[in-house]
Write a structure and sequence with these properties.
By secondary structure, this protein is an alpha+beta fold. The protein has 15 helices and 23 strands. The longest helix has 35 residues. The radius of gyration is 31 Å and the shape is globular.
């Protein structure tokens, strides 16, 4: 199955499978779009879009017969509604659509989805708290046409806030951070999603532009900071007893350290979106950029949500709009069938003539002599297949060994390059180092509350780590004894001093790819051959009787 995360400037595609709540990924790719190909979610040139996707899938050998899509647009309307309990899902959907039409003025030109965010009591009557989304029907219709041209069965189209929720719900660690604000960062837009009690309760999508921030180079940082502040104020007005304590980022997170320092001033902890244990095969690409597409592969919980816009349109009687495009293809097929029918009689006559020849060939194949030869060929092919499979496994094991990541003290010392902070306080001591479930975990202690931020910054500067996860620090006092580092040559933190303990998990890039290893070996062999040739050409010495060389 293919999964697409489609925005105005990027199409991110992953290929994989979903089974029993677990997703296994095989490959991923990104298509960068020119400005104007998609505008506010609207595909402006459907044949061009189909061609762009088809060329990328063929070039990456990622073809598949089924797909799901996650979409984003600043034309999508988000609204919290309070709806009386309904007898069934269809009745609830109808009530949501009617209230959206009444309060927001949206009608049949919109595809409406919803998520149940809990219950609320008004005037002594219990009602459902609903987060509804209204997406222009033409946006969904265009994607139906694109995938129809690609001959790919489009199983689902959902708004990105609902697809990324699948990732949040699949990660048990996220439930411990509620209420939390999940922020997707892109140079062209921001998507902010508020979760409470492990449920999406509010979503906001906004386009951003450098021109809105005096064309500042760091306009993305300014936009993120401003919109987070607005969301925090909004949430506090709605739920003053449980304010946001955690902000989680994903997407283009180059400003993560700077945002972390800014939010720490408000006693808010930041982290990067973690990878749920139910997702596998992500090691070869950046999970942060493909999170929406990966989330779209999970099945939705039909008890509390209706987020598949294709299904909703079908139940609302609008699916024929998407099917109308296929009518032209069906008509062409029928016309072709009529033309082909004209040749039917001719071919039937020719087939009768060939049947006699086929019978002769069948008798030859069934003869004992031919059967024995075929058996020998099949056995030889089976042995060859086993040898080829064994050879592939050996090469794979060799590549895995050659390219395995190595974390050395030299790398750790590079991370700790800035040994002391501005007040001559130690940035961090490495007190523990472990490799768990394919990821490294470093435990550290610092005498400075800004030590963890500088430590993470030094890690990012190494440019050899990814999926860096930092969940904040804990302040403690080393009362009994001094804190010592894993490295015996490192200093220690004296007993009685306040410490800031934290841990960081990350994945290290492989040392070399198999291609790089092969290139290095070939270069070394060529260098040795050249050195040998040069040595032979310039050898003017002779050996003495004892075998030593003397100069001529």
């Amino acid at each position: 199955m293919l999964s697409f995360d489609i925005t105005d400037r990027h199409i991110r595609i992953v290929k994989g499978s979903e089974s029993h709540g677990k997703v296994r990924l095989n490959s991923a790719t990104t298509i960068d779009l020119k400005e104007g190909v998609i505008v506010n979610g609207h595909v402006k040139d459907i044949p061009q879009m189909a061609t762009i996707i088809s060329d990328e899938l063929k070039g990456r050998k990622m073809q598949d017969s089924e797909a799901v899509v996650s979409i984003s647009s600043n034309l999508i309307i988000f609204r919290e509604l309070h709806i009386p309990k309904a007898k069934g899902q269809q009745q609830l959907l109808t009530m949501v659509q009617n209230q959206m039409q009444h309060t927001m003025g949206v009608g049949d030109d919109y595809s409406i989805s919803y998520t149940i965010a809990g219950e609320i009591e008004e005037d002594g009557t219990k009602a459902l708290r609903i987060l509804a989304t209204a997406c222009p029907f033409e946006v969904v219709k265009a994607f139906r046409k694109v995938f129809s041209m690609l001959s790919i069965n489009l199983r689902s189209v959902a708004v990105a806030c609902n697809t990324i929720s699948r990732i949040v719900y699949s990660d048990k660690k996220m439930a411990m951070k509620m209420p939390l604000l999940l922020v997707q960062i892109d140079s062209n837009f921001l998507s902010l999603n508020l979760f409470e009690n492990n449920t999406l309760v509010f979503s906001r999508f906004t386009s951003i532009d450098a021109a809105d921030y005096d064309n500042a180079d760091d306009y993305v940082f300014e936009a993120v900071n401003e919109n987070i502040f607005r969301m925090i104020q909004f949430q506090r007005a709605q739920n003053s007893e449980e304010p946001i304590q955690n902000v989680v980022f994903y997407g283009e997170t180059t400003e993560y350290i700077r945002l972390t320092k800014e939010l720490e001033k408000q006693d808010i902890t930041t982290s990067l979106l973690g990878i749920p244990a139910s997702v596998g095969g992500y090691e070869n690409f950046d999970f942060q950029n493909y999170a929406n597409a990966i989330g779209a592969m999970f099945k939705s919980n039909r008890d509390i949500e209706r987020i598949n816009l294709l299904e909703i349109d079908a139940s609302s009687g609008k699916a024929e709009a998407g099917a109308s495009f296929a009518v032209g293809w069906i008509g062409s097929a029928l016309l072709s069938a009529l033309i082909i029918g004209g040749f039917y009689v001719f071919f039937m006559i020719r087939i009768d003539q060939m049947n006699g020849q086929i019978a002769e060939i069948d008798n030859w194949i069934a003869s004992p002599e031919t059967t024995s030869k075929i058996t020998l060929v099949d056995e030889a092919k089976a042995r060859a297949d086993k040898i080829a499979k064994y050879n592939t496994e050996i090469l794979t094991a060799s590549d895995n060994y050659i390219t395995k990541p190595k974390l050395t003290w030299e790398v750790v010392e590079n991370i700790l390059a800035n040994e002391t902070g501005p007040d001559n306080e130690l940035d961090a001591l490495v007190t523990g180092l472990a490799f768990v479930d394919g990821a490294w975990e470093i435990k550290c202690s610092s005498e400075d509350s800004y030590g963890p931020s500088r430590f993470i910054g030094n890690m990012i500067e190494q440019d050899i780590f990814r999926e860096i996860t930092y969940d904040g620090y804990e302040r403690e006092t080393a009362e009994a004894e001094a804190i010592t580092a894993v490295d015996p040559d490192a200093p220690e933190i004296s007993a009685g001093e306040p410490t800031y303990n934290f841990s960081v998990t990350f994945i290290q890039e492989p040392n070399l790819t198999p291609a790089e290893v092969k290139a290095a070996e070939e270069a070394a062999a060529a260098e040795a051959e050249a050195a040998e040739a040069a040595g032979g050409a310039g050898d003017t010495g002779t050996e003495n009787a004892d075998g030593g060389e003397v100069t001529a």
